[in-house]
């Protein structure tokens, strides 16, 4: 099974140790940066990447529970600069991302 899937603005991760799935959507431009993290289901993870348009993948991810958001643009923040909606899920996703990066470096 794949442990990571990726599109233009999104990346999804699977952690086999915890059997949890996560996704992040990141937009960057001259105006600033936005990041949104979600805890997704196995079904959503399986469907990601099957759409021709990445917008559809993002829409599917956005149906899940948001765990973290960061919005900082030159026009001011759209909300708090950093909001953690689910601390435990956010930490678990960060651990998953770190493990994926370590595997890639080996």
Question: In terms of topology, how is this protein built?
Answer:
Elements lengths: L3 E3 L3 E6 L4 E10 L2 E9 L1 H6 L6 H8 L3 E9 L8 E3 L2 H19 L1
What does this structure look like?
By secondary structure, this protein is an alpha+beta fold. Helices cover 31% and strands 38% of the residues. The protein has a six-stranded antiparallel β-sheet, sandwiched between helices. The relative contact order is 0.20. The mean pLDDT is 85.
Briefly say what this structure is.
By secondary structure, the chain is α+β, with helices and mostly antiparallel strands.
Helix percentage: 25-40%
Mean residue pLDDT: 85
- The gross shape turns out to be globular
- The largest sheet has its strands arranged as 1-2-3-4-5-6
Head-to-tail CA distance between termini:
19 Å
Structural class by sheet pairing and helices: alpha+beta
The sequence of SSEs as H and E is EEEEHHEEH
> Proportion of β residues?
35-45%
- What's the total number of strands? 6
Radius of gyration over alpha carbons? 14 Å
Q: Give the biggest beta sheet.
A: 6 strands, antiparallel
> Ranges with pLDDT <50 over ≥5 residues?
none
Key words describing this protein structure:
31% helix, 38% strand, six-stranded antiparallel beta sheet, single chain, alpha+beta, 106 residues
